[in-house]
Model the fold of this input.
Amino acid sequence: ERPAGAADLRYHHGVTRDEQLSGFEEALGYRFRDRALLERALTHSSYANDAPRSGDVRDNETLEFLGDSVLGFLVAEMLFEAFPDFREGRLSKARAHLVSEPSFARLARGLGIGDLLLLATGESRSGGRVRESLLADAFEAVFAAVTLDSGLPAAREAARRLFAPAIAELDPGELSFHDYKTALQELAQGEGKPLPAYRLLSESGPDHRKEFVYEVLYDEEISATGLGATKKEAQRQAAKAALAVKLGKATRP
Done:
C-alpha cells in the first residue's frame, strides 16, 4: 500500500508504474535485475517519512552518497581517456563541470526522472519534481542502484552513454582556457617543451580598423594562426587554435 499523503504514481498519465519504470530502463540503457533498487533510488525522504513503519520504505539518501562517488570516478576516468594531455588542474575543473548538480539535473530531466520520483503530496505540489537538487540526488542514487545491481562495469556502460555527448562538446574555453596564451604556455611547460613562439604574419586596414594575423609555433609540431583587431587578440586566437589542434578538438566558430 502507498503511504497516506504520498503522491500516487501507479497510474501516472494513464501508464502503470511498471510501464513507467520499463520506459526509464530503456532510456537509461540498463534493465534492473532487482527492480526494488530502482524504486529505492527514486524514493525521496518525504515519501519514506510518510510511510507506515510496517511498510519498510527506504529513501534514496544513502544511495546518493554512493552514487556521487561512483559518478565522480567514472567521469574522471572518461576525462582521463579523452584528454590525456590535460594536467591535473584542468581535469579537475572539467570533472567539477560535469559532476555537479546542474549537470546531473539536466541528465535526470532527459531521462524523465522527475515524473518517476516518489514524493509526499506536499513535496510534489511545491515543485519537487522539477527541483534541481532532487533531480540530481535521484540521478546519483540511480547510478548507485545500477552498481549494486550489476557492479561497476554496468554503471560505467550507462555513464559513458549519458556523458559522452557532454565530454565531446567540451571546449578548451569551458575549462578555464579563457587566457589561451597562458594555457598553451602551461601545457608546454608541463611537457618539458620550449615555450610557444608567436610571429606577426600580416597587418592591414586603417588605424581605426586594424587587422592583425599572428602565427604560433608549438614545439615545431603545431602551427596555428589567429586573427584579431589587436596584436594581443590575434595572439590569443592563435593560441586557442593551437590548443584545439593539440587537444584534438575542432575549432568552433
